[in-house]
Write a structure and sequence with these properties.
serine/threonine-protein kinase, alpha+beta, Heat Shock Protein 90, 140 residues, 3 helices, 6 strands
Length: 140
């Protein structure tokens, strides 16, 4: 990922090992989404999870776009490889993301519906500094 778009973060001392965790701090800029997808693809390939690339890129793209459009800085993306693949997008906003009903002619509004269809489970965790939207996918 281009250094202009992401700043690596040092993991918590009790967090998963470096081999199991990837974290990026992202600007509040829609132009970052393509670079984020590329970075996620590289990370998953480095972990030997090539089969998860397509779905994870879609999930990350939707969650990061929502954070940029509806959340607040700072935005952080984390991938955690454990018994499942966890994707977390945190932002400084306080809203509660939820899928909404859209009409056939609406151009947007389907992101969380897609997220719900593509992952095993997803949810929102609120903190004192904002929220984290997370997804879980089974490992290939």
């Amino acid at each position: 990922m281009d250094a202009a778009y992401a700043t690596p973060v040092t993991p918590h001392p009790h967090a998963p090992t470096v081999e199991q965790l990837a974290t990026w701090v992202l600007p509040l800029d829609p132009a970052v989404v393509a670079a984020v997808r590329a970075g996620v693809s590289r990370q998953l390939c480095a972990w030997g999870l090539e089969e998860a690339v397509f779905t994870t890129e879609l999930l990350v793209s939707e969650l990061v776009t929502n954070a940029i459009c509806h959340g607040a800085a700072p935005i952080t993306l984390r991938l955690v490889r454990g018994r499942v693949l966890i994707c977390e997008v945190s932002d400084g906003g306080c809203g509660s993301p939820r899928p909404r009903r859209v009409r056939g002619c609406d151009e947007g509004g389907r992101g969380l519906f897609l997220v719900a269809q593509l992952c095993q489970s997803w949810g929102v965790r609120h903190t004192s500094t904002g929220k984290t939207v997370w997804t879980e996918q089974p490992l290939p």
